[in-house]
Design brief:
Chain lengths: 432, 432, 432
């Protein structure tokens, strides 16, 4: 069994349910770009796949950036003058402005309000906000709670620490036949947000788990990193490895009920771009393809001009196009096992083509070889057409995907034809 | 008179009637990929054009193939128990499975039926079937006859031979000013089928006849070959000549009432492709252009990747898209003199542009030359525009056809302008 | 203040009115490709801008052409037998066939008519006709006047001279930071025709006047030349200077009420083509873009294959597409201050982008630089997006205009972002 077989053998919705369970388990943890919540998350993933957790010390220079101090938090609340907790981190870790410095002081409502963040347009939802690179503290809450806060003094407690430590990230390398790599990247720094980023985290984990169980041509490198600073740190620490990356996918926001969308790499016509577009165009479902732009998730870093890696991004509804994005409404009800399973299936479809998209050389290029004497000619059916296409275009400059696009036949047919022709010594894979 | 003059001088329908007569003469002969029917056909063509008939012995290795044994047939029939011939080769040579081995035996109806081929969907038509590379015997008949065959014994006689001999093909070379060649190829291996392949055979013959009567720039090579094995044999025996082939056309199925269709060469943008598309696009009649695909007629061999010759195919309704294809309904009523004449006219239109599609160098490239002092400037009319276009784009990288496409003017106008400018020493043909 | 500032500071309609006044002042003068009317015109322009007037002697060889004799005219009329002037040059200089040789003779109506030109379809208009290179004489008049001429003798007087002299043209060079040049060319040889060519003349003059008042990156060369022979003469006398021309515009017919139209240079994708198309596409007004063709105005010469300069043409309604073209109806009522001002504004828009369309190198190309620590990151707004686009695509092969097209952002935003990033040392301009 290979990855193509894997794709055929899985039942997307079943995998979707497994992925959903992992999301549910990870959901309550308060993650940030550093700290114990991140480590705890990696620990749970390690029960599924043997990922290695790397620690990069505070102060490490990573290109134009510096690894920040480590943040940890135990508790945080705001009590009114009656001693009632009107905001309580224990109820939702979104209540705390992520990376808030420690505080224990009493404020008037007016002064307190300068540190409170709400969404007046969505008065029931708690926003998700961070202040990683500017020391600050604050609380996020629903607007409906804010407007009912009465005048008076409020005790503010933030039991957090911000001090030298390290940035953690998880990495898993699955050795394939070739040392050429496919990079799968997801960010794992968000607290209780289900679609962004637990869906990507869960998909990457199950993908690693399944791919680890079958032989494969490419080596696969999975990175579970904090957004932005994590990608920058990984690239800075692993710059020499990037030349091995032949294809890559950033996975994020792949659990909502929207259509699958693919954002091309900066190269625009990299093989991953051609393959992902092919899969979506032939999926039978609605989809969206967008050109590269230099904002979004960690493709920003992989596709910075100094790297320009062939890394695209697979999502469902693109971030910022659903109102639940970066709010408490991106919860366990917002992601669906069916969507997770479908995303998983499409990633496998992409990988299956990448694994098999070889370029061949016709060893009998002058006129057609006589298929009949080899028992390969029955009557003209799709199989024989596929053989003729592969023979004619296997001149070393057309991959099977190129021939698929040109012929209008199925990739699987051409791959099957190539297999048969190769076994009969009529074509051979092009050496690079 | 040159080929352009030839095109102007012919009356397509008159040529169409001549072509039709030749088709009618050739129609009754039982041809196959080898044998005396083939030689007899070449003999008739030799009354029109001085083609040379080559014989390639059985067993000759031609790339991945071997020249097969020679097949000849004198008679074949099936008699019922009353001694009546229920299937009779003398009535139609399509009745015999082409390349049937000799038989003289009695069969029950049940056993006989394993060797009978019909078209249940077209119960009045006899199918055309062959078994060149797998020894077998059989009869083709209309389904209506089959279903009325009664139980009983049937005497089967096939008076054929299949033994060492040779494969024949005809070739005609018309020397032009240049040793660069235009290849015209048609297959001549089908028995009583009028459109496929007698129409192509007849068109090629009349083309050779007419072109042979005028001076021409290119040399022309006409090959009258058995399908597939003939093209492969010709390429194997003449590999060193192929580098001279600058343009080529496979002619087949050009006598039915459908629109003219052109199938591009594998190069997709070869000059023959550009010219043929230009002619069809400006013909004023409906047409069809299709991309190269590695099945069809002998363009499969010419466009195999080891040759990749600039050879397209001109047909009317593409094979397999008319129900009469490879049946007794592809008869003398299926081809029409008007269609044959129109196809002839379009081939001449293509050749006329190829002959004249030169690339020039403006000898006065800085600013416009003063046309007025040479008497070339009247008022702005198409002639002067054509001169300005030719002057401006004759930088050595635009052919007259390129300039035609860019300007929207007629090729003839630009050719005329180039002629005048050349005579006035303002442009000169680019040496290769 | 630079050219961008200039564009912002002008009120198009005000400039349009100034341009209109200059047109009105120049309108009555009888210009031709040589002679005192041309010199008088240059003299009026010199009151606005310090252009240098060059004189090239009759007989000078300029590529395939020769500078013609100089033509001057004082008076011309046709008197009927009653001594009434039925055609009078003093009423309109269009009445004289431009370059008419001197005549003083009496003709019968029949003989006279061979020298009379009218527009039967536009019976009230006087056509504009010339005979520069074939000695002749004649009068142009309205068809309504022609048909009322009675039989009888007519005295014809043409008080002109055609003798050795010189061809005059005006030239103005505005030195910029760079020695690379932008060429602005207009023809100035037409007599009382307002749109063709006084509108172009006036626009070029006001452009020179305004650009001369601000610093600019490119050097600007304005040429005020007689059509065709003037462009050829200028190119012949200044061939060595043409390598400095990086962009150019021919301005003609830019005062009518039609939409702005741009005709591409022969290079098709020269920077001037991309910029002009961008400006028109984003102008919010209807426009027309056409491919290069080798007829029209002096772009014919600049874009002849031996020069192939990146020179496009800006017009409003293309010549020959309005019936007033080359007739007395192309008068002061045919051009409008609003149109003139709008054309002026669009030329400045084009020049503003050309001036600022630099290509940068990201000095921190591996991952994104940390904008926040430099105070450049607020929240995601257009400014930050523009910075990300400039950073990501500043790899030395994308100009700001390229990034504009790809991002869909405004050129001004990207130019502003580039300015800020450059000041922070994050990007640097690419040296050529």
């Amino acid at each position: 069994m290979n990855i193509t077989g894997l794709k055929k053998s899985i039942v997307p919705e079943e995998v979707g349910h497994e992925m959903y369970s992992l999301i549910a388990e990870l959901y309550p943890i308060c993650r940030s770009i550093t700290g114990d919540g991140y480590r705890q998350t990696m620990g749970i993933l390690q029960r599924h796949v043997p990922l290695v957790v790397h620690e990069v010390p505070t102060g490490t220079k990573v290109f134009d950036w510096v690894v920040p101090k480590e943040w940890n938090i135990r508790d945080a609340y705001v009590k009114n003058s009656k001693g009632e907790k009107v905001i309580d981190f224990q109820k939702s870790n979104l209540h705390i402005l992520n990376y808030s410095t420690p505080v224990h002081r009493t404020f008037s409502l007016k002064d307190l309000k300068e540190h409170l963040f709400t969404l007046p347009d969505r008065p029931d939802w708690i926003p998700y906000k961070t202040s990683y690179y500017k020391e600050n503290w604050g609380f996020c809450l629903s607007h409906n709670v804010l407007i009912h806060l009465e005048e008076g003094d409020y005790e503010v407690v933030i039991d957090s620490t911000l001090k030298d430590g390290s940035l953690s990230y998880g990495e898993l390398y699955l050795q394939g036949e070739s040392t050429e790599e496919i990079l799968i990247s997801c960010h794992a720094c968000h607290p209780s947000l289900a679609n962004d980023n637990l869906s990507g985290l869960s998909l990457a984990t199950y993908l690693a788990k399944r791919i680890g169980s079958v032989p494969h041509r490419y080596s696969y490198r999975f990175v579970f990193i904090p957004g932005t600073i994590g990608a920058i740190t990984w690239l800075a620490m692993n710059e020499e490895k990037t030349s091995k990356i032949k294809h890559g996918l950033v996975l994020s926001g792949i659990g909502d009920r929207g259509n699958v969308s693919y954002k091309k790499s900066r190269r625009d016509m990299a093989e991953i771009d051609l393959v992902a577009c092919h899969v979506l165009q032939h999926s039978g479902a609605a989809y969206e393809i967008s050109d590269f732009s230099p904002y979004g998730y960690d493709e920003r870093q992989y596709c910075s001009p100094g790297f320009n890696l062939p890394v695209g991004r697979l999502s469902r509804t693109p971030y910022g196009r659903y109102p639940e994005y970066h709010t408490s409404a991106d919860d366990l009800g917002f992601v669906r096992p069916e969507s997770l399973g479908d995303s998983f299936d499409k990633v496998l479809a992409i990988l299956s083509i990448l694994e098999n998209n070889r370029t061949y050389i016709n060893l009998s290029p002058k006129c057609e070889p006589q298929l009949g004497k080899r028992g390969l000619y029955s009557s003209i059916g799709e199989d024989e057409l596929a053989m003729l296409w592969v023979l004619n275009f296997s001149d070393g400059s057309h991959s099977l995907l190129d021939i698929t696009e040109r012929s209008g036949l199925e990739f699987n047919s051409l791959q099957g034809a190539a297999h048969v022709l190769s076994e009969h010594g009529l074509i051979t894979e092009r050496l690079k």
